[in-house]
Amino acid sequence: MDSVANRSRMTDLVRLTERAAAKVKEFVPQDEAPAATVRLEVVRTNCMGGRGHEYHFAFTDSQRTDDAVVESQGITLLLDPGSAAKLLGTEIDYLEGLEASGFAITNPNAVGKCPCGHHDLFP
User: Fold this and answer.
1) 23's torsion region: left (phi>0), alpha (psi -120 to 50) or beta?
2) What is the pTM (predicted TM-score) of this model?
């Protein structure tokens, strides 16, 4: 599948809210402004005997041939095939409060949280 078809098919894969996109843009290195390309990965942890998963964000300038490319709120997200399968329909927001601030990921594919509450579980 060519990248244009892949890009149009993946636009609803992951959605950033305006707040999340604004926060990502705050972290964009000055030499890369105004473009921001972020690799988003779902990574297995040791929690629950390796059943827990966490989300990794990193700025990148390299796209792999099998990456799903998602454009949301002016941010380009690159997802490897395994992560893309787990992220379908996910919304990423940014919340600020007195006790905690950070990216809040609402993933409809997660079937629960591990006991620590920090890692998503997938079927």
Assistant:
1) alpha
2) 0.84
Top CATH class, 3-121? mainly beta
Residue 55: what residue type? Answer: Y
pLDDT digits (tens, 9 = 90+) for 38-73: 999 999 998 878 889 999 999 998 999 999 999 999
| Residue that the structure tokens 């395994």 belong to | 82
Find the length of the chain. 123
Mapped onto helix, strand or coil, the DSSP state of residue 120 is: strand
What are the extents of the domains in the chain? 3-121
Other C-beta atoms closer than 10 Å to the C-beta of 66 total 11
At residue 33, does pLDDT exceed 50?
A: yes
